[in-house]
Amino acid sequence: MAAGSDLHEPGLALHIEDLTVRYGATVALWDIDLDIPPGRLVAIVGPNGSGKSTLLKAVVGLLRPVAGHVRIFGQPISRARSRVAYVHQRAEVDWDFPATVLEVVTMGLYRRIGWLRPVRKTHRRAAMEALAEVGMEAFAERQIGQLSGGQQQRVFIARALIQQADLVLLDEPMAGVDAVSEDIILSLLRNLRDRGKSVVVVHHDLSTVRRRFDWMALLNRRLIAQGEMHDVYTPANLKAAYGGQMAVFADTDAEETAPSERVGGQL
Amino acid sequence: MLVDLLSSQIVRTVMLGAALVGGLSGMIGVFAVLRRQSLLSDTISHAALPGVCLGFLLVGGRDLGAVMGGALFTGMVAAMSVLAIGRLTPLKTDAQLGIVLSVYFAIGVVLLSVIQAMGGGSRVGIATFLFGQAAALSVHDVRILGAVFIVAALFLLTLWKEIKLVTFDPLTAEALGLPVRHIELGLTVLLALTIVAGLQMAGVVLMVAVLIAPAVAARQWVGNLGAMTIVSMLIGAFAGAGGALISATGRGLATGPIVVLLACAVVLISILAAPRRGLVWQALSAQLARRRISGDRVLLAMDRLATDHDNPAYPSEKGMLETMLGRPLPRVMRRLEASGLVRPVAHHPESSPHWVLTQAGRRRAEALRRTGHGPE
């Protein structure tokens, strides 16, 4: 590979080539080629265990692929961290952790603040603004354990907003979330896209994906299809991704959300 | 008697040492608890026993430096064994920890028997490492403990916000580009160091409780990490010093169990009595909620009767309300009267009690209907 400064596919928000990820002997992702143009609201869709979350983790460097490479606006993740925000699934943390909502949002700035430097008033003000964007400013001093699932998700999204990233990756942000939070989250994501940001969302509700997103990648360990929603959302493609689980496609509202909810809270 | 004890230089040294150990354990225990490393801590402390014996054998006596060095060595080797087993076998974490703990502890007990069988003056101190004996702490030992305490405190202070993020959300910390592995390694080394420093006072068997109990108690009272760390440190220091003092009053009374009992008493009180998270508080607020709900049900029922009869001042009869709600209501009605939501009225010619909704009662019923709060 050429050295240092040269960019590879800089015109794409996310460029993934030959990506293969393995957990022990299990292949989680096989030979993925995916090119996401900037400024789109993208859904990554596929059945359970199809590698959607794994894909996001590989993109932000939480997993080391056995083959392939990832470029973000032409750069490897190690040099694009400040341009990427990642929101993992809500259940990945213990919500009984002793912290306030505001504190958690400022965590998005910890890298930028730098070593040995304390959190200052300007950082808290930025966090308040991010909280206002998700409609949670009234909860700033609340313990995170007292939030509902939808509110927790909005706090995490505020923590991503504060990073002012150009590419925002979210893992199931609308799973197990109340209707109000769902609307707020969706309009936030659209708003980000309208401001030219690239938003990539792991989504597993087939019944809503067509209305909500404008670009889609269908995944089942391999990449089944990618492109504009109306080109990709076809019975043939969905069948290729979901196989025998076609009931999901036929019955548009049958999809259940949030397989395992663990909302940490008070005793 | 107490004054005599406190005026003794030796007792004061021992109490200072025990307070340092307790404070250190409380401080570091917060992170062990929040990072779910209680069982790992227990494994490291049991696995320290063979190291204690090796240090003892090497130096030929009880020297805190040698003992701590040996304990740290086998404790860390045990921690790495857990990692290796996790990587090489499909065993679950609790099984990995259980196996490593038992194997290293068994080796330690064998070595302990060997040392005791060798006889001589040196064998005297060694068995105290099982259950702890703070009285054995010397001024020199206290200096070592003080140094460990300062190192731990400085580590936490300089990397405070990074440690907080890694503890709460390691995935995000890594995605932001923080060196999560290194920070976690630092915390784990500090945990091992804390355990090893505490062995003389608390013993390998009970050390984990000295580590965990103060943090668990502290979490009940406070809601941010900094306060939790400080409160936990204070609880640990209190239990340490108190345990040392009590064990100094009885001949041959091991310190570890006393410290643990003191710390666990604080845990018990905290779990019962802490505001919001305490069981007493929760039981009270649950009862208040039940009362409010049953009051609300009555208001809604009276409101429905008033609507059905097209009369806002409709006098609802006791028997009618009890039939609608399916239970006797004397106390609920008294509470509603007391809070001015209903008013008792006479309704001739009937002699049974009747109530009407007051202005405030009507407003509340209406709000309940509108917002949907309160059951149908």
Describe this structure as you would to a colleague.
The complex is a heterodimer of chains A (267) and B (376). Chain A has 267 residues and is an alpha/beta fold. Chain A has a single domain, classed as P-loop containing nucleotide triphosphate hydrolases (Rossmann fold, 3-Layer(aba) Sandwich). Helices cover 33% and strands 22% of the residues of chain A. Chain A has helices spanning 52-59, 77-80, 101-106, 110-113, 121-133, 149-161, 179-194, 206-212, 229-232, 235-242, 247-250; strands spanning 14-23, 26-36, 41-45, 67-72, 84-87, 167-171, 198-202, 215-220, 222-228. Chain A is globular, with a radius of gyration of 19 Å. Chain A starts with 13 loop residues before the first strand and ends in a 17-residue tail after the last helix. Chain B is mainly alpha-helical and 376 residues long. Chain B has 2 domains: 2-211, ABC transporter involved in vitamin B12 uptake, BtuC, CATH 1.10.3470; 281-371, Orthogonal Bundle (Arc Repressor Mutant, subunit A). Helix content of chain B is 77%, strand content 3%. Chain B is built from 18 helices and 3 strands. Chain B has a 3-stranded antiparallel beta sheet. In chain B, a hairpin with an 8-residue loop joins β2 (342-345) and β3. Chain B is elongated and about 100 Å long. The N and C termini of chain B lie far apart (67 Å). The model of chain B has no long low-confidence stretch (mean pLDDT 91). Chain A binds chain B through residues 60-62, 78, 81, 84, 86, 88, 92-94, 97-100, 103-104, 107-108, 110-111, 113, 115-116, 118-119, 143, 159, 266-267, and chain B through 34, 158-159, 161-162, 164-165, 167-169, 171-178, 219, 222-225, 227-228, 276-277, 279, 282.
